[in-house]
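Entry 14. Ran structure prediction on the chain below.
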Amino acid sequence: MEEEKKNGHPAETQASAADVKEWIRRGGFLAVAAAFFIVPWVCAPVRDYAPGVAVIAGVIFAVTWGNPFSAMTGKLTSPLLGAAIVGMGFGMNLIDVLHAGANGILYTAIGITLGIGLGVWLGKRLGLARDTMYLVSVGTSICGGSAIAAAAPVLKAKAHDVAIASATVFTLNAVALLIFPPIGHALGMTEVQFGFWSALGIHDTSSVVGASMQYGPTALEVGTTVKLARALWIVPVTLFLSCFVANVAEGEKRKIKLKIPWFIPGFLAAAALVTWLPVTAPAGGFIKELSKYLMILTLFLIGANLSREKLKELGLKPVIHGVVLWFVLATLWGAAIHLGWVHCVK
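Output, C-alpha cells:
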C-alpha cells in the first residue's frame, strides 16, 4: 500500500502524460496558425514567401505530429477560403475584374475542354475507376476542390473516390504554389502574364491566389479574376455530367444538380460596392489587405488537412493521372504565354 502511494498509479500517470502531450500539440498548432496570420501582417519582408511556407508547414505538421483539429479545419477551410476571396474583391475595380475575366474566358474554355478530354482519355488508358477519373479531370481542369465537391454528388461518387481525387489534386496544388513563381521569374513573365498562367495552370483557387500573391499585386488581381471566371465553368460541366455521365437506375429520371461557389457572386458584389461607392474604397483597401493574411492562414489549414492516411490512399495510378494531366496543361499554357500566343491584358 505504501509502495503504491509512493509510486502512484501507472495508468493515471500515463494518462496524465498523454493529456499534457495533447495540450502541447494543440497549443503548438494554434500558435503556428496564428503566426501565419500575424507575422506576414507586421513583417513585410516575409510576405512573398509566406503562402508557400504556410501550406508546406501545414503538411509537415499534419504528417509528423498530426492535426489535432482535423474535423474542425476540414469544415473551416472552405468558408475561410471564400471569405478571403470575397475580402479581396473589396480592393478591386469591378470594370477591371470583368475585363480581365472576359479576356480569359476563351482560354479557360479551351483549357477545360482539353483538360477533361485528355483526363478521360488518359484515365481510361490507366484503368482508373470511372468516378476517380472524372473527379481528378474536373478538379485539374476547373478549380480543384470546389469542382470535385460540385461533381461528386452529380456522379454519386463514393467517399473513397472523392478522397483520392482531392488528395491528388491538393498535393499538386502544393507543388504548384512553390514552383510557379520561380519558373515565372526564370521565363521573364510580367505580372499580368504570370497572373494568366497561374489562373490557367494551377488547379485550386487558393493556390492561384497564393502563387500570384508572391509574384506581385497586379499578378494577384489578374490571377484571381481569371481564375474565378474559370471557376464559373463548374455550372456547364456539372450540367454535362448530370445529362451524359451520371449513372441512372432503370426507370429513374435524371436529376440536374448545379452548384455555384458562393464566393464568386460575393467577390463580384464586393468589387461592385467599392467601384460604385468610392467612399467605401479606404475601408475596402483595408479589408483586402486583411484578406491576404486570412488566405495565408487558410493555406496553412489546407496543408494541415493532408494526413498520412490520405497519402496512403492515393495509390500510384491516380497520382500518375493527375501529374501527367497537370504537367501537360501547365506546360502548354506556360509555353503559349511565353511565346505570346495568349493575349494577356489586364
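The chain has 16 helices and no strands. Will compare against last week's run tomorrow.
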